[in-house]
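Full entry
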Amino acid sequence: MEIWLNCIESFPQQIPHGIDKILTTQLTDSEITSIVINKDLKLEKNNETIGLMINISSEKDQNDALSLIGSVNWILLKCDNWKMIPCENLIAAAENTGTKLAAIVENELEVPAIAFALEIGIDALVINSNLIDLAKITKSQRLENKKQEPAINLDSKSISFDFGKINDITTIGVAERVCIDTTSLLDLGEGMLCGSFSNTLTLIHAETIDSEFVPTRPFRVNAGSIHSYILMKDNTTKYISELKSGDEILIVNKNGNTRITNIGRIKLEKRPLVKIQWINENNLEGNIILQQAETVRLIDKDLNPISITKLKRGMQILIHNSIQTRHIGTPIRAFSQEY
């Protein structure tokens, strides 16, 4: 993490020790690297544009900042009212993109909060001279806590699978569940990855299997309870309750191959629900809450669809595990625990 001295209003006679860069409105002869902010709010270094300052006071401003990620080296954030949430959202979005974030902080409480937001923190604190000592201490703490985490891959065309052993099946009453109808026909072996916890999901098979009691719906996945996570494209997740017509959804088959299609309709109804819990060989526990119906199927240890009404304790089902924490669906390198 860098410390930038905010010299927009006034320039000190002497730059204090520990400053990495100076934020100013004009070039200086200081030995410290200057970041010049011009009238168009562009950030320049050595007469080259390296980014942009965004004043965030609304959702539109945040979206403007998000749209820049991946296309500029730096985004300087100045937040009027809400600070922590916009900073967290942008930190999560900027992970592994090459775009760095600087934020203007104005008081002692904001320095450690923004420096450690989402455990990851901002790339540069822009401070006034009265916050230099605290910023230096915070930078030192960041260095002490720094650890190398594996890079997060958002572009995988395949999914890795594991097996989870069912350790409990319980009914939990009547509540809202969602059927997801797509604009594509789904094949045998295809479905969607859903679950109560974002780090362990199971493959729910599409309604492609014939039955004498009900016609097939080869465009549909009965994805279960509205609170569940569902894996979307680019390795992001959403809550099922957030889905809407037109959204792009990830289709996964039992071999881990993926493709993307669109949601045509969301069908929400109240139905009896059952909770299916599993645990894998590394003691990672997960569960999914589904409509208690014969047409709802998971994938068994032989990679065949199996109705949830035939599941028993001790049986194994196909699951997908991830060590990644998520912030608004985006994987980030930080700690969280769901249970």
Summary: The chain has a mean pLDDT of 88.
